[in-house]
Amino acid sequence: MKEVLNFGIVGYGMIAKIHATCIDEIQGAKLIAVCGNNQNKAESFAASYGAQVYTDYDEMLANKDIDVVCILTPSGTHAELGMAAALSGKHIIVEKPIDVTLEATDKLLETCRACHVKLCCISQHRYDPAIVELKKAVDTNQLGQLNFGVSRTTWYRSQEYYDSNSWRGTRALDGGGALINQSIHYVDLLQYIMGPVDQVFSYCANRAHERIEVEDIAAATVKFKNGAIGFIEGNTAAYPGFSARLEIYGSEGSVIIENDQVKEWKFKSDRIEEPPKGEKNHIVGSSNANISHDSHKKQIQDFLLCIKEDREPSVNGWEARKTLEIILSIYQSSKTGLPVKIK
Questions:
Q1: In tens digits, what is the pLDDT along the chain, a chain of 343 residues?
Q2: What does the alpha-carbon distance between residue 323 and residue 178 come to, in Å, rounded to a whole number?
Q3: H or E segment at 186?
Q4: Could you say which DSSP state residue 51 is in?
Q5: Dihedral (C-alpha) 186, 175, 83, 80: value to the nearest 10 degrees?
Q6: Residues 17 and 117 in one domain
Q7: Which of 322, 122, 332 is nearest to 218 (CA)?
Q8: Claim to verify: residue 149 and residue 52 sit in the same structural domain
Q9: C-beta atoms surrounding 107 within 10 Å
Q10: Shortest CA distance to 234 belongs to which of 194, 182, 274?
Q11: Is residue 97 reached through a cis peptide bond, with omega within 30 degrees of 0 on the bond before it?
């Protein structure tokens, strides 16, 4: 196994800076290639890292020195670009969501399996200290029977945000709106902590934006397979932007995490101590321009270990598919006006 794994990035929007910073800071990782359709922008981005610039993705994939590709393009292109990377023998990190349809996602998973490459989807908040401690508490039954879980993302995105790129707010490339784009992280955390979802019933609406095909508000009731119930809110019309919030209520205790920090940690047993607070300002309600990259870095570090140790990533393609299926089921319920059962 190589001591240093070489990375290529395709797409250089806001999130690319976070990926590049993480790669730059991780021992045993090196960014050597950046691909985008605008040569000048790609060169400007790549210059800080000494990376080679490509405007042709296939040409970048032909570089045999690249071991891992980070796919940071519009959501509806993730599976197609991922399959091309897998067929070139590259391991893959894809930003959320894994894609915008289950059909494309399943093709990507099968291609990665057949090509014997690793795939992970960014769900960095699973690596936040608060979530790590909450997961331990749930797995050791400290909360007792889980009864109710809530995921609420009350953020704000301006009209200028949606107008900034032609793909934003489109079903084909964005896949949806507030739910699949901004709220997906805490939807993922809800099912990660509470367990598999059995059924959803929802309403989605566009109340505050023009020239988009998708929702800026979504609300869904949730039934989990363990019998618990819950609620999901996705909102990018909550001016000026507030919080992402996870609430978990069990028979022996309750935990509330807001903006990646423990807000409430209450148990019937007085022997359970409060977990570490972790880093401040992981996410903010109005923009993701200043989010911390600490949890991204932890996930990418873990992915490198998975490659070197030949094991599955904790957030592999199948894990990412679970969250996508929940969100697509919420969209289907809103469209049909009926509950949707998840397989």
A1: 789 999 999 998 889 999 999 999 999 999 999 999 888 888 889 998 999 999 999 999 999 999 999 999 999 999 999 999 999 999 999 999 999 999 999 999 999 999 999 999 999 999 999 999 999 999 999 999 999 999 999 999 999 999 999 999 999 999 999 999 999 999 999 999 999 999 999 999 999 999 999 999 999 999 999 999 999 999 999 999 999 999 999 999 999 999 999 999 999 987 666 665 655 444 445 555 556 899 999 999 999 999 999 999 999 999 999 999 999 999 999 999 999 999 8
A2: 14
A3: helix 184-194
A4: P
A5: -160
A6: yes
A7: 332
A8: no
A9: 16
A10: 182
A11: yes
Domain count, the chain: 2
What's the token pair of residue 77?
């292109």
In a domain, 291, yes or no: no
- Name the residue among 28, 31, 20, 121 with its Cα closest to residue 308: 28
Distance CA 108, CA 58 (A): 17
Please tell me the total number of residues recorded for the chain in this structure.
343
* 55 shares a domain with 14: yes
Paired tokens of 325: 């299926």
- 147 with 243, same domain: the answer is yes
Cβ-Cβ contacts under 8 Å for 221 (sequence gap 6 or more): 200, 201, 202, 229, 230, 231
The torsion angles phi and psi of 333, rounded to 5 degrees, stand at -65, -45
Neighbours of 332 (CB within 10 A): 14
Please give the residue range of the domain that contains residue 309.
5-124+296-315
